[in-house]
Structures are given as C-alpha cells and as structure tokens.
Design brief:
Layout lengths: L9 H18 L4 H9 L15 E3 L5 H8 L4 H6 L3 E3 L6 E3 L4 E7 L5 E8 L8 E3 L15 H6 L9 E4 L3 H14 L8 E4 L8 H10 L4 E4 L5 H14 L6 E4 L7 H7 L2 H10 L1 E3 H15 L10 H17 L4 H12 L3 H16 L43 E8 L8 E8 L4 E9 L4 H20 L2 H15 L11 E8 L11 E6 L3 E6 L2 E4 L6 H7 L22 E6 L4 E4 L1 H4 L4 H9 L4 H14 L5 E8 L17 E4 L3 H7 L10 E3 L19
Parallel strand pairs: 7-8, 7-9, 9-10
Antiparallel strand pairs: 1-4, 2-3, 4-5, 5-6, 10-11, 12-21, 13-14, 14-15, 15-16, 16-19, 17-18, 17-20, 19-22, 20-21, 22-23
Length: about 700
C-alpha cells in the first residue's frame, strides 16, 4: 500500500534481538524476584553473564526496552518487526511487549537470538509464559529453545548424544546443569536438552534435531502432572516415528526436571531421571491405562472381561511400536490392571490380530487420478487353496505388482502366512512370509502372528526391526509354555521403497530368519538373494563338504532365536517362498516363471499347483514384480548394493545400521563375489551364520 515502509531486513532483526538480550541480562542482577525464581529451580548458574544462556529480566515499566533500543539506533519498525514492542492503538506510543518477566533468549542453530520465551514474575499476567510472536526470523514450529546454545557450546561426552525434550525453558536449564554433572562420569554420552517454544513438538522440530544431532537417542521428559501427560498424548504420534531410539521419562506426579533439581543435588536428580527412562510406548501405555481408570472406562479388569478387552484394545498398537519391550510392557500393564503378564500379552496380541487381520494378495492400489482398466482374467483353474485375488493392473505410477498363492496339500488348514501392508502417505509396501515349523496348530499361530507383527512394524521402521518385533512378541506370547506346546516359524520380510532416496539408495530391503527364500533374476539366471539359516548352510560356509541330508532341514535360526540377516536390493522381480516350494519345484521352473512373469497371479498359481503335483507339504508363493525406475532415480551405490548383513542388536540400532560399512556399527557386512550369480547375497566362505 502507498506510504507503507518496507519490512526490516533479517540482519536488523537479529541485531535488535541481540541488543534486547544484552539489555535484559543487564537488568537481571537488580531483580530479587528473578533471583529467587532461579534459585528455587536450581538454575542460579544461568544468571552468569559470561555463560551461554543470557537469561535476563524485563523491567515492569512500559517503555524501558523501547527507550534503550531507540537510543541504540533501532527504529520503531525494527522493534515491532522483531516482536519486542507494539504501537498503542490510542496514543501511538511504542510500548514494550515483555514486562516484569524472566527472559530466556531463543536462538537458531547458528546461535543467533531470534526471539524470547518469558516467565511472568508479578503474578498478575493472564499468561504465565509469553513468547515472541511469529516474525520473519522467529517461527516457533521450526525452533527449539536451548538447541542453538548447546550446539555452540557442545556438552562433554562420547558417542551418540541423548536429547531430552522437556516442556519449558527452566527445565532445559535444569537438565543442562544436571548434564554438566553427569559428564564427569567416564565414557558417558553427551546430554542435550531442548524445549518447544509455546507449541507441541512438531515434525519440523524433530527433523531439526535429526539434522543437527544425527544418531541421537530422543527422550521425552514432560511434567508428571495431568497437563504433562496430555502433552505427551499430543506429541506421541510424532515422536514415535523418530528413526532411532526413542524413550520417555515418567516423572513423579506434579514434578518437572526443574523441580527435581530444586530439591536434589544435580547428580541425584539426573540419576532419578535417567533411572526412570523407559521405551516411549511403555510410558504412553502407562498413561493410557491410568486415563482408562480415571475416566471410568474400566473399573475392575480382574472381575470384568469387558474391562480387559477395552484395555487390550487401547494399548495393542503401543506394543507394536516398541516390540523390543514387549515383556516389560506386559509386566507393567499387568501390574496396573491386576492381571497376569502372560494373560496380558496374549490378550494384547489377540486384540491386535482382530484389528489388523488382512489376507495376503496384490498390492493395494496406489493413489492415481483415474482407475486403470481391469486386468485379463487368469486362465486355467486356480491352485488348490490359492488366494482368489486378481493382480491389480499396471499403470505408470505403480512401483510393484504382487500376488500370493497357497497350497495346503491334503490338509484343510496350512501353517504358512503371507501378509501385505501398504502406507499410501509414504508409498512404502511391505510383504511378510512366515512358515510355521511343524504341522501343529501352534506353528500356524506363530506364523500368522510373526507375519502380521513383522509387516506392521516394518512399515513404520525397517524389516530388521520387524523381525525383532515379531521375535519379542512370540517369545512373550509363549513365555512359560513348555517347548512342545510353543510355536515357531521361519520369516522373510521385504520392504519396497518408491524412490531410492527413501532408504540407502535401494529399491528393496529384505530381512529374514530361517529358510524361507527370496529369488531374483540376474543376467537371465536365477539368483538366490537370501542365505538359508540351516545347519548344512552353516557347515558349508565354514568350508566343510556337505552332501544333501537332514542338515538341510535343521534350522540354526528362526523367529524365536538365532541370526537375523538383512540385505538391500536394487530391483526386482522377486519370488518369495517357503521351503515347501524350493524343495519341490526345480530351479529351472522357478527361473522360467520369474523371468517370464507377465501376470503375477497366474505365475504364483502355476507354482503353487506344481508343489501340489509333487505331494509336498504346505507351500506359499509370493511374487513381486518391480517396474523399472526412471533414469534419474537409478541408484549409484552399486558397490555395496548386494551386501549381506548378519545383524544383531536392538531394533533401533538395526534401523540405523542395516547397511553401514563394515566396522562402523554392530552389523558386519560381507560382499559376495561379483562374478558368482549363484552366490548373490550369500556370505563369504567361512562366515558363521
């Protein structure tokens, strides 16, 4: 509009905020109220004018800061543009926004002051905390209090950092003082503390932590009151998708980190907090059960089955979010509900199965502007027990087409399970194939549970984490059960990514335990991607000559225990099958179906029928056809593209280290001979599986 002055440039906004921070810091020694607040919260050291925090005090009069900044050469537009003051509607005078408040400067990742969060000290303000309004350089959803100061003055320690996300600025300063004491312990990790500025924790703020502190262990430490638990409820959906280790702290009711530091010595306070760290899903589960009781949705789970079902349904998804903590979560929930932990584990998994049970089959259709034409019907009779699903038609936007076929032989029910999961928002698709060990009912239960849980977890994390989740769940499910009454299974999981940028520059990621196999075609020849976890395979890897025999059947790894292997893959197609298929169908037939696959369902049906002709045991085939990637998306990481990893450790560690170079993490990598197509994806000789 005519007459309007241009907005101040960012450089002037940084300058006026820095000048304001210096002014507020100079006023702090004269405020007894500010000194008492800092002392009561154990953060007196933050008042050090030479320290990184520049905590200050805004005087109670209306124009103290405005007068100072004008004298320093700043214009009214710069003061109001930085959110430090405002023009009074009637008088037209420039007035201070912050008055009689303890001032905490907020800095960006370059440690430039961009705004303030301020605590009322007079007791008369409507808002206890007041923040700088949105400005050209202050966008609260993109900032975290304390991050910039700690990046400029990094805490001592070695290894990946731990980042505590707390509710307020005083809590950040309290955690920082505790961390300084904690750093005196040898071999300790560096501890950071940050807080959102008047907003819930956002995806952008998590991305900021990930960019500046990669590999961090994220820990939410909100207040132990009802407001803190409500804040945790709001944050959980965002924080639970953190790509690394994520935990929570359940603080004593009515206390926050600053309260603890105000009553305890720093080392005792940090010990209390670190001792209360749990998987975030476990903290959320405890809060959820407390809320069910508080709202009278459940009253007596011991007496009423309806209460138990309500509780199991409310917490089932949280078990999936923290598969490595299944046992501890079951015990914690059992204590809250007054039940047996084995009953809780069984009830939770039954609730989850009832909620998510879906048949295997073709990929869910992607989001496309118009429906594609119907596919040609499959010729010939379907395989016995095959899944009657037509392949979904190919379009330019499809990445994969898959199909599943089963053959149970002469039995009515099989012990294999195939699950497909798809996330439309990310475009990721996951397939899980499980083969129950044995022919009894518990083998079928283990296979179905393993496939379902692994597929669900893998969709939100990685295939390796999915296998760990299934392992923890099944071991908890059969806890205390005699081995003769427990189930077990081989398991193979494949994740397909819509772009090489999603995961280490690869199109597929596989993880497996047992002897389910994945094949692909290389230079027109059948190539086995996976390596069997069998006694025969192990001996061959150690250089021993092995003729076919019982050792080919004996497993050294399964979903219950043993190695978990992972492998990246640039492109398809893929054929997944259990041992009932690869023992019955000649490799030349597998190669012919995979190389010439134009109709995934027809190929799967033919292979399943072939198993039946050989009177083989229960068999499942899953075919995945990958479309060619555009040239711009072709991965350039060819040297490590076909590595095989034998990995162990927590799901969080595996999520970060599945494809790390040898010697950089808990996973060890071996690269097969490039000229050996048959050895594709298999470990070098002498490698113990």
């Amino acid at each position: 509009m005519p007459g309007e002055r241009p907005a101040p440039p960012p450089e002037r906004l940084y300058a006026v905020n820095a000048a304001a921070a210096q002014f507020y810091a100079s006023q702090l020694p004269a405020s007894g109220k500010a000194a008492r607040y800092l002392h009561s919260h154990g953060i007196d050291t933050a008042a050090d004018p030479t320290g990184p925090w520049q905590v200050g005090y805004a005087p109670g009069r209306w124009t103290e800061l405005a007068t100072h900044l004008r004298a320093a050469g700043f214009t009214d537009e710069e003061v109001t543009g930085a959110g430090l003051g405002f023009i009074h509607n009637r008088s037209g005078h420039l007035l201070d926004r912050f008055r009689d408040r303890l001032m905490f400067p907020v800095t960006d990742v370059h440690n430039r002051v961009v705004g303030f969060t301020a605590r009322d000290l007079g007791g008369r303000a409507e808002a206890k905390w007041l923040n700088t309004p949105e400005t050209a350089i202050y966008r609260k959803r993109l900032l975290l209090y304390g991050l910039g100061q700690q990046l400029a003055n990094r805490p001592a320690g070695i290894g990946d950092p731990s980042v505590f996300v707390v509710e307020g600025a005083a809590d950040v300063l309290a955690m920082h003082r505790m961390a300084a004491t904690h750093a005196a312990i040898p071999q300790t990790q560096p501890l950071y503390a940050v807080a959102p500025c008047g907003t819930n924790l956002t995806r952008d703020q998590l991305d900021l932590i990930q960019q500046t502190l990669p590999g961090a262990h994220l820990i939410l430490a909100f207040d132990g009151d009802d407001a803190g638990r409500r804040a945790a409820d709001r944050v959980y959906p965002v924080a639970s998708r953190w790509p690394g280790q994520v935990s929570g702290v359940r603080l004593p009711k009515g206390q926050d980190p600053a309260d603890l530091l105000g009553t305890l010595e720093p080392m005792r306070a940090i010990t209390e907090i670190t001792g209360a760290i749990q998987p975030l899903a476990q903290v959320q589960m405890t809060n959820t059960i407390d809320r069910l009781f508080a709202t009278k949705r459940i009253t007596d789970p011991v007496r009423f089955a309806e209460d138990r079902i309500t509780a199991y349904r409310a917490i089932a998804e949280l078990f999936v979010d923290a598969p490595h903590a299944t046992r501890d979560m079951a015990e914690t929930a059992a204590e809250q509900l007054g039940l047996d932990s084995a009953d809780v584990a069984r009830g939770v998994f039954e609730a989850w199965s009832a909620r998510t049970d879906t048949p295997g089959g073709t990929d869910p259709p992607p989001d496309v502007a118009a429906p594609a034409p119907a596919a040609e019907p499959v010729a010939g009779p379907p395989a016995e027990g095959s899944t009657p699903i037509s392949p979904h038609p190919a379009t330019e936007t499809d990445m994969t087409v898959s199909a599943t076929a089963h053959n149970t032989g002469s039995r009515r029910a099989g012990t294999t399970a195939a699950i497909t999961r798809h996330d439309p928002s990310s475009g990721i698709t996951v397939w899980a194939l499980a083969d129950g060990i044995g022919r009894h009912a518990q083998a079928a239960t283990a296979a179905q549970m393993a496939a379902d849980i692994a597929a669900t977890v893998s969709l939100r994390s990685t295939p390796a984490a999915g296998l760990h989740g299934a392992r923890a769940a099944i071991n908890a499910f059969y806890s205390g059960v005699h081995p003769s009454q427990a189930g077990d299974a081989s398991l193979l999981v494949v994740s397909a990514y819509p772009s090489p940028t999603h995961r280490h520059g690869v199109r597929f990621e596989l993880a497996w335990a047992g002897d389910c196999r994945a094949y692909t075609i290389r230079a027109g020849q059948l190539a086995q991607v996976t390596a069997d976890h069998t006694a025969a395979r192990q001996r061959r890897d150690q250089g021993e000559h092995q003729s076919p025999g019982i050792a080919d059947v004996l497993l050294t790894s399964s979903i219950r225990a043993g190695d978990i292997s992972v492998c990246p893959l640039d492109e398809g197609p893929l054929l997944l099958c259990n041992n009932g298929v690869h023992r019955a169908i000649p490799e030349r037939q597998l190669a012919a179906e995979l190389a010439g696959m134009s109709d995934a369902q027809a190929s799967a049906d033919r292979l399943a029928r072939g198993v039946g002709q050989h009177n083989a045991r229960d068999a499942t085939v899953l075919l995945i056809h990958a479309r060619s990637a555009p040239p711009a998306l072709v991965t350039t990481t060819r040297t490590n593209a076909h590595a095989t990893v034998t990995a162990s450790g927590s799901p969080a560690a595996l999520a970060k280290t599945s494809f790390t170079d040898a010697g950089t993490g808990p996973a060890a990598v071996t690269t097969p001979q490039a000229e050996s197509v048959r050895g594709f994806g298999q470990p070098a000789a002498g490698r113990r599986r």
